[in-house]
Design goal:
The protein is α+β, with helices and mostly antiparallel strands. Helices cover 24% and strands 34% of the residues. Strands 3-4-5-6 form a 4-stranded antiparallel beta sheet. It has a two-stranded antiparallel ribbon with strand order 1-2. The longest helix is centred in the last third of the chain and has 13 residues. The structure holds zinc ion.
């Protein structure tokens, strides 16, 4: 499998470290159900069969965190974005009226 890093270009997946699902959100630690929410955050993950957003770290390259959209059935990669850009888009969406 090859991943097209936005900064370095296309590279083998052995240059990257996989961190998992990029769609999970860290729970609010001050919430009344924080203990259950953190348990679910850490251990209850979806086993997606199809397109999934994943976090990858370019450890042997530019050290960028990336959000890779990959089909888990075929390993086809349809999108790669810097994680910081995805986070900024999510902040804009969350703060929009
Ligand atoms: Zn890179």
């Amino acid at each position: 499998m090859r991943i097209k890093c936005p900064y370095c270009g296309e590279r083998g997946n052995d240059e990257f470290s996989y961190l998992g699902d990029a769609s999970v959100k860290r729970p609010d630690p001050s919430a009344a159900d924080a203990s259950d929410a953190f348990y679910a955050f850490a251990y209850e993950r979806k086993n997606v069969a199809g397109p999934m957003q994943e976090l990858w770290y370019h450890a042997a390259g530019c050290h960028a965190w990336l959000v890779v959209t990959r089909d888990t059935r075929t390993h086809e990669i349809s999108d790669v974005k810097p994680a910081q850009d995805v986070a900024l888009e999510q902040q804009k969406t969350a703060s929009a009226p």
